[in-house]
Design brief:
Elements lengths: L1 H4 L2 H33 L30 H34 L4 H15 L3 H15 L14 E3 L2 E4 L1 E6 L1 H29 L5 H18 L3 E6 L2 E3 L2 E3 L2 E3 L1 H27 L3 H9 L4 H31 L3 H4 L4 H12 L2 H30 L5
Antiparallel strand pairs: 1-2, 2-7, 3-4, 5-6
């Protein structure tokens, strides 16, 4: 027994199993106690309400929805809206954060000063206040529909939102999307093969360019054959609003602008810190082989800085996804909005909160898996 006890791996496994067992017993006790208390008060427990008719509207949805649909359909709409807005904010804040981080390292006093004021102002102002500011600016500061701003041909900006032209694919759009999907996959694989050959032999071959040319040829041939077509739908004033095109509502616009500006400050500081963590000797090494400052940054410094940037960037992406719940402040119908409305109508608070927790846990786990994979992919030392 003494030999088994002093086995570090066995002792660690035993402790972990014991902790998991205690956690499971605690969760079982909480679930049983909650179910008994709710039953004593005549409150039903379960997810049967998901099959009932929702009977509440959702102002914006990327998938078809009507108040006569079920609560399950409403949850699906909220989830798609959350994923859509989170993806836009992640991409936008990453791109803007890169410029902010580089400006914070700039030797130009104007660029450095603007970036510093921007970062300090945004980081030290509550996100809720920023969202309310942008929402008020959009809904109060812009003109009405008939006096809408027209900054670009076919583009209108008013208190109803931003209206822009949209593309409509006619004919057989399945052919178009199939060619695009297959072409993108082939281009990615061909580019990877070309890079590996260049690393292995020193001589590459433009596999990716050839695949892109083949995809463009296929798209052009099917378009000439009339298998698919593209038309532009321009917004036009009709009654008290615009019809046609694509409309970006004030709620959507204020949420995207506010969260992109807020998140880009943190991402910019992460990128700046990662670049500063690379020794100055690496910059000198790039100059010694004839690289410009931009080439040294892209080819020498950034690949080394990624191992410092990616871990905190993962945490920042988590924060972005969780901060999307503040969409309630401006009225954008994300998953938290749907859950709150469902709880008010059905009283199924525990089930609604559990669904909300499961959604964000799943999204966070997916982000973590992807970022960990990418971190291993760009690691300088492969194990």
């Amino acid at each position: 027994m003494a030999r088994l006890w002093y086995d570090a791996r066995l002792r660690a496994a035993t402790i972990q199993i014991a902790v998991l067992g205690l956690a499971g017993l605690l969760a079982l006790w909480l679930a049983t106690n909650t179910a008994e208390n709710l039953a004593r008060r005549g409150i039903a427990v379960g997810f049967d309400f998901l099959s009932r008719v929702a009977r509440f509207p959702i102002s914006e949805s990327l998938i078809a929805y009507a108040p006569s649909d079920t609560f399950a359909r409403a949850f699906a709409v909220g989830l798609v809206n959350t994923l859509f807005i989170a993806g836009i904010i992640v991409v936008g804040s990453t791109i803007l954060g890169l410029f902010v981080g580089l400006a914070r390292r700039s030797q130009h006093p104007l660029a450095f000063g603007i970036a510093t004021v921007f970062v300090e102002t945004m980081r030290n102002t509550p996100l809720v206040v920023q969202l309310l500011f942008w929402y008020a600016l959009v809904t109060v500061g812009l003109p009405n529909v008939r006096q809408a701003l027209n900054p670009l041909p076919g583009t209108f900006l008013s208190v109803r939102g931003l209206f822009v032209p949209s593309l409509h694919v006619g004919g057989s759009p399945a052919i178009l999307w199939t060619i695009l999907l297959v072409g993108i996959v082939v281009i990615v694989i061909a580019s990877a093969v070309g890079r590996r050959k260049r690393v292995r032999t020193g001589h590459g071959f433009p596999y990716g360019s050839i695949a892109a040319a083949a995809m463009a040829t296929g798209l052009g041939a099917t378009w000439i054959a009339g298998l698919w077509s593209v038309s532009v739908d321009t917004p036009r004033l009709q009654g008290f609003s615009f019809v046609g095109g694509t409309a970006l509502t004030p709620e959507f616009a204020s949420l995207v602008v506010g969260m992109v500006l807020y998140s880009s400050c943190f991402i910019g500081e992460i990128i700046r810190g990662g670049i500063d963590a690379v020794g100055k000797g690496q910059w000198e090494a790039g100059r010694s082989v004839g690289l410009s400052e931009r080439q040294s940054l892209r080819l020498v410094v950034i690949p080394q800085a990624l191992r410092v940037i990616i871990p905190p960037m993962t945490s920042q992406y988590f924060n972005i996804v969780k901060n999307t719940t503040l969409a309630l402040v401006v009225g954008y119908p994300d998953i938290s909005y749907v859950v709150a409305t469902t709880i008010n109508q059905t009283g199924q608070a525990i089930e609604g909160v559990l669904i909300l927790m499961a959604v964000f846990l799943t999204i966070s786990a997916a982000i973590s898996l992807f970022m960990n994979w990418y971190n291993r992919k760009v690691a300088l030392v492969q194990r």
